[in-house]
Amino acid sequence: MWEAVRQANTERLTPVFDRDHPIRATGDMRNWYTGKPCERTRKSHINVCVYDSTWEASDAFALDDSDAVIAWVKNDHLGFEVLYVYRGVVRKYRPDFLVRLRNGEFLVLETKGQDTEQDKVKRRYLDEWTQAMNAHGGFGRWRWAVAKIPGEIRDILMQGAEARTGRTQHAADGAARRR
Known about the structure:
Shape: globular
Low-confidence stretches: 1-7, 161-179
Mean pLDDT: 79
Strand content: 25-35%
């Protein structure tokens, strides 16, 4: 029922920015310390990448190695979050990587082996976020993708503008506000 009410009262998607820090850059990052494994990077604006899994480490290597990638960053301590509602509770979704592609697009990339109901909800909100950013037009062209098996990131990067986005039929209310 909530979806029906929201859809009926929507004219357009508008991005909602953090009130205190509407625009952030990797150059604004402060030092932080971690006990997690990390490795130096070449194409990331942050000198090392913290890995939450060996799969993420493999994806980071692929991002550093890909000719399709100009720059990338692991979304760790950046503050990049997409708010979503799951089972009546507002939560924060922090995708794994943000990537600037050679074709001019920005890619929000998630590494995800198991796909739960909650993951699908997160992606609906992420889809709405990318739609809002693209409708705004002031921050380039955005898309998102999910690597569901190790090594799939290379295919996602090679697909360029035609990359599989996994768009869903139904968008939900998230970090974008409907007006």
